[in-house]
Write a structure and sequence with these properties.
With 127 residues, the chain is mostly beta strands. 0% of the residues lie in helices and 50% in strands. It starts with a strand and ends with a strand.
Length: 127
């Protein structure tokens, strides 16, 4: 199982970035995929999650309305479109494979519900 996040970088306040998570080594369309982030000195925070078929999406309150998660099962890839970026979005972003296909509201943001993690991509938002 491999997950590789990419697309991070330095962007100004209000800018946009699109992160990608390329997966391999498992049946991608059987699993939900989540995005987490971790800022220096802080814990890992759930950002978003998309179900295996793409029909259910979850967002944290801090990014709802600004971030959009999507997936292309034909390409084994999940995306996180991040708009209206703020300095507080600065963090290393990780994608992870959920333990099943359909997370629920009370589980999607819990790191222990994920069993494989990518290496992370750094997003820095300057003011």
């Amino acid at each position: 199982v491999q997950l590789q996040a990419s697309g991070g970088g330095l962007v100004q306040l209000g800018g946009s970035l699109r992160l990608s998570c390329a997966a391999s080594g498992f049946s991608f369309d059987n699993y939900a995929i989540g995005w987490f982030r971790q800022a220096p000195g802080k814990g890992r925070e759930g950002v978003s999650c998309i179900s295996s078929g793409g029909g259910r999406k979850f967002y944290s309150a801090s990014v709802k309305g600004r971030f959009t998660v999507s997936r292309e099962n034909a390409k084994d890839t999940v995306y996180l479109q991040m708009n209206s970026l703020k300095p507080e979005d600065t963090a290393t972003y990780y994608c992870a494979r959920f333990s099943g296909s359909n997370p629920i509201l009370t589980s999607w943001a819990t790191p222990s519900q994920y069993n494989s993690w990518g290496q992370g991509t750094l997003v820095t938002v300057s003011s």
